[in-house]
Write a structure and sequence with these properties.
Elements (H helix, E strand, L loop, with lengths): L1 E3 L2 E3 L6 E2 L8 E2 L11 H16 L2 H7 L2 H13 L5 H5 L8 E4 L16 E4 L1 H11 L4
Antiparallel strand pairs: 1-2, 3-4, 5-6
Length: 136
Amino acid sequence: MAIFYGVIVITSKPLKPCAHPMCPNLTIGTRCEKHSVDGKIDQASDQRYYDKYLRDKRSFKFYHSKEWRQTRAYVFGLSHGLCDQCRQWGVITPGNVIHHKVPLKRDYELRLDLKNLICLCNSCHNKIDHCKGKDA
């Protein structure tokens, strides 16, 4: 049982913070009543906030550069568009993410090194990022 906006709400889940940046309100879902008016508007404002204050400008510029697009296409072709991690396990899965083994934040000089790049499917990429942490 919790008091939520002056109303007693019985929930099986604990209340959690609103997903809107800098909002201190607690909610049952992902956003509080103040920020749940229109998901698209909230998502756009969240993206603008992230771009303005949190995004790494150097990485953003690199990932939109011609040299990255060309290198990404080359690595994708080397792996024949298949996930290298899944192929090691004998599973054929289309790859759609070119992953930096050593992240840009740790060593920016390795950003175009072919030995540092690997083609992965979303599932394998999420497992790697989850295990190591985003900036590890």
